[in-house]
TrEMBL record:
Compartments reported by the entry: Mitochondrion; Peroxisome matrix
Parts of the chain that traverse the membrane: 20-39
Residues in the signal sequence: none
Top class in the EC scheme: isomerase
Record field: catalytic activity: a (3Z)-enoyl-CoA = a 4-saturated (2E)-enoyl-CoA; a (3E)-enoyl-CoA = a 4-saturated (2E)-enoyl-CoA; (3Z)-octenoyl-CoA = (2E)-octenoyl-CoA; (3E)-tetradecenoyl-CoA = (2E)-tetradecenoyl-CoA
PROSITE patterns, sorted: ACB_1, ACB_2
Source organism, top-level taxon: Eukaryota
Role noted for this protein: Able to isomerize both 3-cis and 3-trans double bonds into the 2-trans form in a range of enoyl-CoA species. Has a preference for 3-trans substrates.
Residue stretches making up the ACB domain: 64-149
Gene: ECI2
Gene3D superfamilies referenced in this protein's UniProt entry, alphabetically: 1.20.80.10, 2-enoyl-CoA Hydratase, Chain A, domain 1 (3.90.226.10), Lyase 2-enoyl-coa Hydratase, Chain A, domain 2 (1.10.12.10)
Main location: mitochondrion
GO cellular component: mitochondrion; peroxisomal matrix
Protein name: Enoyl-CoA delta isomerase 2
């Protein structure tokens, strides 16, 4: 070590050489931690949760305390992460079986994980302790057998993460891919989808991957907010729905603002509304030349979100931002690239191959350096982004109650009926 340092700094004073040598030694020590093998995933889920609908099959007999304890031990030995949804079910059943119905105060909206756990437990209502215990045992037994069989066929690196209904989440080659999966509805974002994306981002931020990618299944990246989110609401519920929608929007966009690792959008096709505005919160945006970028907010009686009222004028100047955000001008992929919204455009025929080859190469770069550099670039404006997000959500809450907005949504929904 001292020899290497000595060669590097020939001609320096001995004290400086000693200091540099010490510094290099400590850097190498730190790096050695980075290369330690990742411990096998055996995180205990004992504090986590079986669905209420996991019927009453054996409930009449009831699982014994011994069966229950043995199921808790089995959970700790699971080799495959059963996914967030199942973990939440395990958690809720465990709490119900041991403490009875949920009576603790509801965690705040920003406390995402504890709120999801509280919601799952609370959803079990007055399910009797014995039934919860039996359902827990049934669920774990199902998990153990499926984990036995799946481990024989699926390689560790390519496991699809269970528990999402509107997404497909996979981790492979240091890349976690979150794929929007409602291709027949152009990946329009339902309330459930916003929530699942938040959970997926939370999981991706903590997993071993280097890069996280958001993409769409089918011909669209996403057609934005699902306009049916605004339907089936009785007049006395409207204000409460708008209030909750604004909270959901703020939390959703907040997850992108705070995401700690390099985040890439692989825009496989047209993008509309919120799926366009959040792109400025990604570190790289790769687009197929078939993609278009459309924010028809005024047409819908709505206003910009995803921090675009701040990021777009800063990126492309107020005039170009106004064309998009106020007048709803749709950009081609090449135009979006010229405005800096898209990093690079690829021919649709080679989009997948080129993007994934590029990302696989990037994912081999030192993970911590990528993460720290991303945070250095992003930290400057985080506060401003959160303030913008809160303001945009507040204004949209009012817009959703306006006649302009309601009429525009009714027009869209009645369009098919008129055809
Ligand atoms: C709490 C969060 C708030 C966040 C606020 C966000 C603001 C926004 O995102 S605003 C943008 C909202 N999105 C739109 O305005 C797009 C609406 N959709 C369309 O204009 C067209 O569907 C589209 C141009 C995307 C595609 O047109 P086509 O190629 O003609 O396909 P179809 O219209 O036949 O679509 C197939 C199928 O999907 C349904 N669909 C598509 N997008 C949406 C959507 N955003 N909301 C609800 N449903 C959507 C469409 O109705 C069709 O369904 P079926 O009729 O049942 O086949």
């Amino acid at each position: 070590m001292a020899g290497v340092t000595g060669r590097l700094v020939r001609g320096w004073c001995p004290r400086a050489v000693r200091r540099l040598s010490l510094l290099l030694t400590s850097i190498l020590q730190c790096l050695s931690f980075t290369f330690l093998p990742v411990a096998k995933f055996t995180q205990p889920f004992s504090s986590l949760q079986v669905p209420a609908q996991l019927h009453m099959s054996k409930t009449a007999m009831g699982a014994s305390q011994k069966d229950f304890e043995s199921a808790m031990n089995q959970v700790k030995l699971l080799e495959k992460d059963p996914g967030n949804e199942v973990k939440l079910k395990l958690y809720a059943l465990y709490k119900q079986a041991t403490e009875g119905p949920c009576s603790t105060p509801k965690p705040g909206v920003f406390d995402l994980i504890n709120k999801a756990k509280w919601d799952a437990w609370n959803a079990l209502g007055n399910l009797p302790k014995e039934t919860a215990r039996q359902n827990y045992v049934d669920l774990v037994s199902g998990l153990s057998s499926s984990s036995d069989s799946s481990s024989q066929v699926k390689p560790e690196a390519d496991r699809e993460q269970a528990g999402y209904e509107t997404l497909v989440m996979t981790s492979e080659d240091g890349i976690t891919k979150i794929m929007l999966n409602r291709p027949t509805k152009m990946n329009a974002l339902t309330t459930q989808m916003y929530q699942e994306i938040m959970l997926a981002l939370e999981a991706a931020s903590k997993d071993d991957s280097t890069i996280t990618v958001l993409t769409g299944n089918g011909s669209y990246f996403s057609s934005g907010n699902d306009l049916t989110n605004f339907t089936h609401i009785s007049p006395d519920e409207i204000e409460e729905k708008a209030r909750r929608g604004a909270i959901l929007l703020r939390d959703f966009v907040g997850c992108f603002i705070d995401f700690p690792k390099p985040l890439v959008a692989a825009v496989n096709g047209p993008a509309v509304g919120i799926s366009v505005t959040i792109l400025r919160l990604f570190d790289l945006v790769y687009a197929s030349d078939r993609a278009t970028f459309h924010t028809p907010f005024s047409h819908l009686g709505q206003t910009p979100e995803g921090c675009s009222s701040y990021t777009f004028p800063k990126l492309m100047g107020p005039g170009k931002a106004a064309e998009m955000l106020i007048f709803g001008k749709k950009l081609t992929a090449a135009e979006a690239c010229a405005q800096g919204l898209v990093t690079e455009v690829f021919p649709d025929s080679t989009f997948q191959k080129e993007v994934w080859t590029r990302l696989k190469a990037y994912s081999k770069l030192p993970r911590n350096a990528l993460r720290i550099s991303k945070q250095m670039i992003r930290n400057h404006e985080k506060e401003k982004l959160h303030a913008t997000n809160a303001e945009e959500s507040r204004i949209l809450q009012e817009r959703w109650l306006s006649d302009e907005c309601m009429n525009a949504i009714m027009n869209f929904l009645s369009r098919k009926a008129k055809m």
